[in-house]
Amino acid sequence: ALTVRFLTRRFIGEYGDMEFIYSHNLTVDGREILFHIWDVPNSQEQAEEGSSEEKRIQWADSFVLVYSICDRASFNILPLKIQFIKATKEGQSQEKVPIVIVGNKRDLHHQRVVSSEEGRLLALSLDCGFYEVS
């Protein structure tokens, strides 16, 4: 849903559990940037780190990992995902891989189970950026 919102400025309430690659041009600081976004939903089948996940990590230049503030399990898998990304990407070079953690569904504060502070502390401990959005 965040990817579709970024690309189209529209919100969709229902979306499938499918993987897509999107391309999008955007002007940033006066420069035209072409984004290629590989939108991968998390599922139990993908929980095991295999060659397809490693392929996605090698393909990407940066990462945005999204969890629901209303779903503790989606938050709890982040440290392992981030460690896997860093081991895969940074093991080959000395450059730090850009990773941002995003807590989604901020508008559903009444259903919140993951505090903003937990998200910020996780991002700080793993040297990642952090945002909460809705």
UniProtKB/TrEMBL annotation:
Q: Is Transit peptide set as a keyword in this record? A: no
Q: Does the keyword Nucleotide-binding apply?
A: yes
Q: Can you provide one Gene Ontology molecular function annotated for this UniProt record?
A: G protein activity
Q: What is its EC number?
A: 3.6.5.2
Q: Which reaction does it catalyse?
A: GTP + H2O = GDP + phosphate + H(+)
Recorded hits in InterPro entries, A to Z, give:
P-loop_NTPase, Ras-related_GTPase, Small_GTPase
* Cross-referenced SUPFAM superfamilies: P-loop containing nucleoside triphosphate hydrolases (SSF52540)
Which Pfam families would you find in this protein's record?
Ras
Q: Which UniProt keywords apply?
A: GTP-binding, Hydrolase, Nucleotide-binding
Kindly give the SMART domains that the UniProt entry links to this protein: RAB (SM00175), RAS (SM00173)
The similarity annotation says: Belongs to the small GTPase superfamily. Ras family.
The name on file for this protein is small monomeric GTPase
